[in-house]
C-alpha cells in the first residue's frame, strides 16, 4: 500500500513517540502518566483515524447508590410490599398533620375528618395544621416568640418613650408594629404549613410496574428512598427529623421547627426579611433618638409617658 508524504510523516511521529515512551527514564514521576491519557497528534482529514484503546484497570467509576441519596433502579424483586405497607399504616412520623380540635369535634358537632393513607385528610378542614413533634424545635419556637415579645416590650416602653415628639412616636410605632406583625404571621405560617411531604411507603411493586412501563417517557430515572420507601421526585431529600422525604427541601430550620421546602419556602423568606426589617428599623430609631438627645441639653421626654 502506498502512502503519501503526510501519512508517512504522521507514522514516523507516532513511532518516534512510542519509542521515546519506551526508553524514556522515570524522573520523579514526570514520565509516569499512562500513554492512554496523553494527547495523540492530530490526524489530517484525509487519513484514517487511529483506534483508541482504554485500560479498564485505569478507569474508576463511582457507582455507589449513596451518592444519589436513594436507589436509581427498577429492580422490583428488591421492593418489599410488606415493609412498605407496614410503614404506610403503622409509622407515625414526627412531621405530620395535627388536629388540635380532635377532642371537641364530636361534642361541638364539627365536621369529622376523612383520612386517607398516611393520615392525610381528603379535603382541607378547619383545625388541621402541620406540626413537627421535635423537642429541640419546640424549644426554639418558644424562644423565638419570647424574643419577639421582649422586643415589643423594649420598643413600646423604653425606646418610643424617649422620642422627640408624639408624632414621631406614633409613626415609628406604626411602622415597627407592622414589621413585627408581618414577622409573627409569616413565622406561624412557616411552621404550620406542609413543606411538601411525600407519602411514606408508596414505593410498592404496583407503582414500580407503572414506572417501568413508562420509564422511556421519564426525563430521569425514578429514585426510591431506602429510609421511608417512597418515590423521590427531583430535588427531594429525606429529612431525618421529619422522618420523611420533602419536595425541594432546602434545610430543616429549628427556629421554625419545620423543613423549608416547596410548600413553605415563601413564608420562611418573608419571615426572615420582615424580621431583619424590624430589627434594622429598631436600631435606626434608637440611633436617631440618641443623636437628637445628644444635641440638646438633656434627654427629651415625651409628655405621653412622662419619663
UniProtKB/TrEMBL annotation:
Annotated membrane topology: Multi-pass membrane protein
Parts of the chain that traverse the membrane: 128-150, 170-188
GO molecular function, one term: protein-cysteine S-palmitoyltransferase activity
Subcellular location: Membrane
UniProt superkingdom: Eukaryota
Residue stretches making up the Palmitoyltransferase DHHC domain: 225-293
A GO CC annotation given for this chain: membrane
Keyword terms, alphabetized: Acyltransferase, Membrane, Transferase, Transmembrane, Transmembrane helix
Entry-linked InterPro entries: Palmitoyltrfase_DHHC (IPR001594), PFA4/ZDH16/20/ERF2-like (IPR039859)
Top-rank EC class of the record's enzyme: transferase
Keyword Nucleotide-binding: no
Documented EC number(s): 2.3.1.225
Reactions it catalyzes: L-cysteinyl-[protein] + hexadecanoyl-CoA = S-hexadecanoyl-L-cysteinyl-[protein] + CoA
Keyword Transmembrane listed: yes
Main subcellular location of this protein, as a coarse class: membrane
Family, as annotated: Belongs to the DHHC palmitoyltransferase family.
Domain notes: The DHHC domain is required for palmitoyltransferase activity.
Protein name: Palmitoyltransferase
Amino acid at each position: 500500500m502506498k502512502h503519501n508524504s503526510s501519512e508517512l510523516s504522521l507514522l514516523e511521529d507516532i513511532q518516534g513517540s512510542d519509542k521515546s515512551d519506551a526508553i524514556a527514564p522515570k524522573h520523579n514521576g514526570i514520565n509516569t502518566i499512562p500513554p492512554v491519557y496523553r494527547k495523540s497528534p492530530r490526524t489530517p482529514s484525509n487519513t484514517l483515524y487511529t483506534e483508541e484503546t482504554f485500560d479498564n484497570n485505569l478507569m474508576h467509576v463511582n457507582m455507589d447508590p449513596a451518592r444519589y441519596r436513594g436507589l436509581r433502579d427498577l429492580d422490583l424483586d428488591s421492593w418489599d410490599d410488606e415493609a412498605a405497607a407496614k410503614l404506610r399504616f403503622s409509622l407515625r412520623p414526627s412531621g405530620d398533620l395535627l388536629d388540635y380540635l380532635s377532642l371537641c369535634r364530636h361534642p361541638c358537632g364539627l365536621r369529622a375528618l376523612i383520612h386517607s393513607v398516611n393520615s392525610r385528610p381528603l379535603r382541607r378542614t378547619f383545625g388541621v395544621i402541620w406540626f413537627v413533634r421535635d423537642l429541640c424545635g419546640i424549644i426554639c419556637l418558644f424562644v423565638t416568640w419570647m424574643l419577639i415579645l421582649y422586643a415589643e416590650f423594649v420598643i413600646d416602653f423604653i425606646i418610643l418613650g424617649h422620642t422627640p415628639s408624639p408624632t414621631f412616636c406614633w409613626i415609628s410605632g406604626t411602622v415597627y408594629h407592622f414589621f413585627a406583625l408581618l414577622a409573627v404571621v409569616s413565622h406561624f405560617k412557616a411552621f404550620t404549613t406542609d413543606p411538601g411531604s411525600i407519602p411514606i411507603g408508596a414505593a410498592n411493586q404496583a407503582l414500580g410496574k407503572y414506572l417501568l412501563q413508562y420509564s422511556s417517557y421519564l426525563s430521569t430515572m425514578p429514585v426510591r428512598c431506602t429510609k421511608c420507601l417512597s418515590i423521590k421526585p427531583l430535588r427531594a431529600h429525606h429529612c431525618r427529623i421529619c422522618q420523611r422525604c420533602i419536595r425541594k427541601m432546602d434545610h430543616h430550620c429549628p427556629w421554625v421547627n419545620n423543613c423549608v421546602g416547596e410548600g413553605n419556602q415563601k413564608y420562611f423568606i418573608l419571615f426572615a426579611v420582615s424580621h431583619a426589617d424590624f430589627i434594622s428599623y429598631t436600631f435606626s430609631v434608637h440611633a436617631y433618638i440618641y443623636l437628637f438627645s445628644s444635641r440638646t441639653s438633656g434627654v427629651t421626654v415625651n409628655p405621653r409617658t412622662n419619663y
